[in-house]
From TrEMBL:
Sorted UniProt keywords: Membrane, Transmembrane, Transmembrane helix
Gene3D superfamilies reported for this sequence: 1.10.287.70
Residues in Ion transport domain copies: 669-874
Principal location: membrane
Stretch list, region Disordered: 1007-1036, 1079-1135
Membrane-crossing residue ranges in chain numbering: 551-573, 585-604, 625-650, 670-697, 718-740, 845-868
Name listed for the protein in its UniProt record: Inositol 1,4,5-trisphosphate receptor type 2
Organism (species): Coilia grayii
Low complexity: bias regions: 1013-1036, 1091-1105
Topology term for the membrane: Multi-pass membrane protein
GO cellular component: membrane
UniProt cross-references to Pfam families, sorted A to Z: Ion_trans (PF00520), RIH_assoc (PF08454)
Superkingdom assignment: Eukaryota
Subcellular location: Membrane
Length: 1135
């Protein structure tokens, strides 16, 4: 079951359904056996499970239910008690096969990191108190495997000696060619035989399946499984069982289950089994560290156990990620050589496994680097990093990075890249590890910079990894900031520069002044564009067109401009013979200009040279082909160029793959389609359609767009103001119609009946010809010209423009709005003697002030103010782009006089494209491979919560401000360490003093008991008067010493407590409390002994000489030493 379910299906629903179906079949077969299936169909052979399923059974029982995923099957099995069954079998069984199958069942239930199943296991173990026996089973299995490894480990000395002989032969120039060839022949034959055996097994399996389909799913082992079991059989059973055990423990902690991570380390039982440390010891054992072979990993790690080593690394990695700081510390501070082993797996070559299975070695190094990153994940201190750096040389890590890169380049040149892990990717993970460690080691930090080495060897590797590595800062739930370093996904290389510029300039700020919200909303479109660009790279012509989209756009505008210039200069076009004839000199000059512009176009393909070439070509075509063909040629070229631009636009934006709705809503695409239609109309219908193409200048220039926006942005205000103007015009029209109807008389000019120009010509010719002279005519003299002039003047007459109200409205609207003085400029001029003169003056002035000055200026003011706002907004936006961080919103002046400049901040710390790359990484990465920060961000993205973006914060500013505090805490740490040493010395001296005083008090008790007398007669006072002073002096001296020590210890306790407030994690209070308790106990004993003599004792007995203190350590000397130490300690604490 484990073999069938261990395939890494893609994260699609179809594969999830198939995986759930396979799991369901296997579990039903193992649980019910074949008897239940046989009863459902008569035509069932042994093992014909597929036929039974497809035959007659109930849908809910025998055949597969469509749409059921693996997660649904896992939940269903957990609801019926599968997790409890696994725990019970593991705890109770003694059979290795049953134990292994139960572990495999647990793996199948937990596959994919199912949180519900994990919680079910946790509650079963935690509530029912089964954890002690459950973890004891795994603990004993790990111990047994380690003992088995130590007992059966052997070093392949034959291969070691062969390598040594080859190296010696290379050094001395003597090589046994025959022996070497025979050795290589054996290795080559071994590989060929293995490949042939694998191919034969696969072919045999295929033939068996074709001949008898019932064998599929019947439980018959396929040859691949037999081959794997044959290799695993070379390891003993206690070692082989460790792989599923470690996989089970890994899945318990999958997706960073914090409860189970801590539970595997500490169960809070009577007997605690730390499986985290035990797993690390198992890694230490299997890699040969316990046998002293740390430098010979290749002799202990071979093809048989490399998968087990990889699984161990993956399990320990899952223990630490999340992060789980306790497990990180437990692994980093463990007494075994676990960290040394992990470092050795990265920096040391693994020979001979790397010679014929390089993919396994790369996977091993990759997992080892991930484990070290997991140990340092999300830690704000440098303890674990320094622990790793202490056990490695920085240059070794850099050498491994360069070697992995060059190995990957060689594989790419040889086309050896397959589905397995790439050397470049392994080198990239190790580079990220070195990048994280470089923050705590200046030598490593300098080594990662290209150009440090004189010969420059390997700089290309460092440049490549630096270019493809990004870092961001995120904010955790507790508002602490964390830096994440990650590899840039390969798909991000397809993000075009045009899209970057568009997003950078068009992203809008929200109410809080942040651009993150709008930037996050554009992520889906940007990701789809990158996906489309990646697909488009496979289409060569489309990719070529898309690369030159800016060129097509520029050419399109230039061609439209030239076409309209030709139309404006030469329309209406005559016959083809009207193109004109150039003089030979000008013709030759034009040919020379054409040739020179062609040469300059190929030598320097700049926009100005392109324009000169087109101008020379058009002039030459006009005087060679004619205006009509030239214009037709220009129109066809413009149409073809615009089609090429449209293809490039679709290639860059991926319009059609997004669906028809996206096409309709994409205004840019609709604009370019309209442009193509206009070009077609100009080419096929009429040349005047080309004039609409000049509006492309408005689309290309942002300033002209602002002019249009100045009208459209406040269009509602302008429209309402225009409606107000119409209402006023309507009212003035009514007044004019009622009172000033006769004043609406205006001169009009009528057209002559036919050919009026002939009348004017005749009048000009006959201007001086008279029909009669003064001598011959009795009447007035009339000239011919006067006659024609009077005929023309009769066409200019006065008409009434307000016969109807509608005609009056049109007149007021037309003439009143267009004249600067209003309607009064076109009405009849009144005499002051007319009765309506005053009313007419008021009428004209009101129209002028209300309509012309107020209403029209309101409209103009709205447009002008909007344009000014747009201009200031553009300037403010440009200022924000230059002086404000896109991500956090901090301004440039915040980084003045700081360790990091504003340019470095927006380039490395808060690079907006690095955040986009991280979003892409979270989307394309397998969720089970997430690190702790990646899981946190993925959950926040799922909830559409953007609090993980830093807002008005930066780690460089916080670290700069807190650098002095860190130095103070570091100095305080050193002082407290010194204080702890002094306190330990003081505690030792107090213990010695306690022992001495206890001995003296015991002797005093014995003397008092031995000298008790039955009679209570007092001795003469003069005999015993001086004696008590000498006898009690040591005891009083002890009391004085203890009181002084007590006061000194109280002061020391207060100082240590004040220091511990700055560093809460320092645990000095408990030590001082113990010392205080011991001192108090000692003082009570002394006081008790002082008051112990009974009142009926005689003075002689009471004043008997007490034993003196030891001459080696007298109390007053002990007190002086303690006082000197305390003075030194107080001095160090002050500083």
């Amino acid at each position: 079951m484990y073999t069938l379910l261990s395939c890494n299906f893609p994260n699609s629903k179809q594969h999830q359904v198939s995986l759930g179906t396979v799991l369901r079949r296997i579990l039903l077969t193992r649980y019910f056996g074949n008897q239940r299936l046989l009863s459902k169909s008569e035509s069932v052979s042994s093992g014909a499970f597929s036929k039974t399923s497809s035959g007659g059974g109930s849908p809910g029982q025998d055949h597969d239910r469509p749409g059921v995923t693996m997660v649904d099957i896992q939940w269903l099995l957990d609801n019926v008690g599968a997790s409890e069954l696994v725990i019970d079998i593991i705890v109770s069984t003694k059979n290795d096969r049953v134990f292994e199958e139960s572990v495999q069942l647990g793996i199948s239930l937990l596959r994919g990191g199912n949180t519900q199943i994990q919680n079910s296991f946790y509650h079963q173990l935690h509530k029912q108190k089964k954890s002690e026996r459950f973890f004891k089973v795994f603990y004993d299995r790990m111990r047994l495997a380690q003992l088995e490894i130590r007992a059966t480990v052997s070093v392949n000395t034959f291969e070691l000696n062969c390598r040594k002989r080859e190296e010696d032969a290379e050094g001395s120039g003597i090589r046994h060619k025959k022996g070497r060839d025979s050795l290589h022949l054996k290795e080559d034959m071994r590989g060929q035989l293995k490949e042939a055996s694998s191919a034969t097994s696969k072919a045999y399996s295929t033939i068996r399946k074709e001949m008898d389909p019932d064998l599929e799913g019947s439980g018959v082992e396929v040859p691949d499984q037999e081959e794997e079991q044959l290799e695993e059989a070379q390891m003993s059973a206690p070692i082989t069982i460790m792989k599923p055990i470690l996989r089970f423990l890994q899945l318990l902690c999958e997706n960073h289950n914090r409860d189970l991570q801590n539970f595997l380390r500490n169960q809070n039982n009577k007997t605690n089994y730390n499986l985290v440390c035990e797993t690390l010891q198992f890694l230490d054992c299997i890699c040969g560290s316990t046998t002293g072979g740390l430098g010979l990993l290749g002799l202990y790690i071979n093809q048989r156990n490399v998968d087990l080593v990889i699984q161990t690394l993956e399990t320990i990695t899952e223990y630490c990620q999340g992060p789980c700081h306790e497990n990180q510390t437990c692994i980093a501070k463990h007494e075994s050589n676990g960290i040394d082993i992990i470092i050795a797996l990265i920096v040391n070559p693994i020979y001979p496994l790397g010679k014929y299975r390089l993919d396994l070695v790369l996977e091993l190094k990759n997992n080892a680097s991930k484990l070290l990153l997991a140990i340092m994940e999300s830690r704000h201190d440098s303890e674990n990093a320094e622990e790793i750096l202490d056990k490695m040389r920085p240059n070794e890590l850099v050498d491994v990075i360069k070697e992995a890169y060059h190995q990957g380049v060689e594989n790419e040149e040889k086309d050896l890249i397959g589905d397995s892990i790439c050397s470049k990717d392994v080198g990239h993970n190790i580079y990220i590890l070195a990048h994280q460690l470089a923050r705590h080691n200046r030598i490593l930090q300098q080594s990662l910079k290209p150009g440090v080495e004189i010969d420059g060897e390997g700089d290309d590797a460092l440049r490549y990894y630096a270019k493809h590595t990004a870092q961001i800062e995120i904010v955790r739930h507790d508002r602490s900031m964390e830096q994440i370093v990650f590899p840039v996904p390969s798909i991000c290389e397809y993000l075009t520069e045009e899209s970057k510029v568009r997003v950078f300039t068009s992203t809008e700020r929200d109410d809080q002044g942040s651009k993150v919200n709008d930037f996050f909303q554009q992520f889906d479109n940007l990701y789809n564009e990158m996906t489309w660009q990646k697909k488009m790279r496979n289409n060569g012509p489309l990719f070529w067109f898309s690369q030159h989209i800016s060129l097509w756009g520029s050419m399109s505008f230039n061609l439209a401009l030239l076409v309209n210039v030709v139309v404006a200069l030469f329309y209406p076009f005559g016959d083809d013979d009207d193109e004109g004839v150039l003089s030979p000199f000008l013709s030759v000059l034009l040919w020379v200009a054409m040739a020179m512009s062609t040469i300059m176009l190929f030598l320097l393909p700049r926009p100005n040279n392109i324009r000169v070439f087109l101008l020379c070509g058009i002039l030459r075509s006009i005087y060679t082909l004619g205006l009509g063909p030239t214009l037709l040629l220009l129109g066809a070229a413009n149409l073809l160029n615009k089609i090429m631009f449209l293809v490039s636009f679709i290639g860059n934006r991926g319009t059609f793959p997004r669906g028809y709705k996206a096409v309709v809503m994409d205004m840019a695409f609709l604009y370019h389609m309209t442009y193509v239609v206009v070009c077609t109309l100009g080419l096929l219908v009429h040349e005047f359609f080309y004039s609409f193409l000049l509006f492309d200048l408005v689309y290309r220039e942002e300033t002209l767009l602002n002019v249009i926006k100045s009208v459209t942005r406040n269009g509602r205000s302008i429209l309402l103001t225009a409606v107000l103007a119409l209402i006023l015009v309507y009212l003035f029209s009514i007044v004019g119609f009622l009172f000033f109807k006769d004043d609406f008389r205006m001169p009009v000019e009528r057209l002559l009946p036919a050919h009026p120009h002939l009348y004017r010509e005749a009048a000009a010719v006959l201007r001086d010809v008279d029909t009669c002279t003064k001598e011959n005519c009795t009447g007035p003299s009339v000239t011919t010209s006067a006659m024609f002039s009077s005929a023309l003047e009769e066409d200019e007459e006065m008409e009434s423009m307000c016969d109807t109200l509608l005609q009056c409205i049109v007149t007021v609207l037309n003439h009143g709005m267009r004249n600067g003085g209003g309607i009064g400029d076109v009405l009849r001029k009144l005499s002051k003697k007319e009765p309506l003169f005053a009313a007419r003056v008021v009428y004209d002035l009101l129209f002028f002030f209300v309509v012309i000055i107020i209403v029209l200026n309101l409209i103009f003011g709205v447009i002008i103010d909007t344009f000014a706002d747009l201009r200031s907004e553009k300037q403010r936006k440009e200022e924000i782009l230059k002086t404000t961080c896109f991500i956090c919103g901090l301004e440039r002046d915040k980084f003045d006089n700081k360790t990091v400049s504003f340019e470095e901040h927006i380039k490395s710390e808060h690079n907006m494209w690095h955040y986009l790359y991280f979003l892409v990484l979270v989307r394309v990465k397998d969720p089970t491979e997430y690190t702790g920060p990646e899981s946190y961000v993925a959950q926040m993205i799922k909830e559409k919560n953007l609090d993980w973006f830093p807002r008005m914060r930066a780690m460089s500013l916080v670290s700069g401000e807190g650098e002095s505090e860190q130095n103070e805490l570091r100095s305080l740490q050193e002082k407290l360490d010194t204080t702890m040493v002094l306190v330990s010395q003081l505690s030792g001296q107090l213990a010695e003093l306690k022992e001495q005083l206890s001995g003296q008090l015991a002797e005093l008790k014995e003397q008092v008991r031995g000298r008790k007398q039955p009679q209570l007669q007092p001795q003469p006072q003069h005999q015993s008067q001086p004696q008590p002073q000498s006898q009690c002096q040591p005891q009083l001296q002890h009391t004085f010493t203890l009181s002084q020590l007590s006061s000194q210890l109280a002061e020391l306790k207060e100082q240590s407590y004040s220091q511990s407030q700055s560093k809460p994690q320092l645990q000095h209070t408990s030590t001082l409390s113990q010392l205080s308790g011991q001192l108090a106990e000692l003082k009570e004993q002394v006081r008790g002994e002082e008051n112990s003599p009974s009142p009926n004792l005689s003075p002689s007995i009471t004043h008997s000489p007490s034993p003196s203190p030891s001459p080696n350590t007298p109390p007053h000397r002990l007190y002086s030493e303690v006082q000197l130490q305390h003075t030194a300690m107080r001095h160090s604490t002050k500083h």
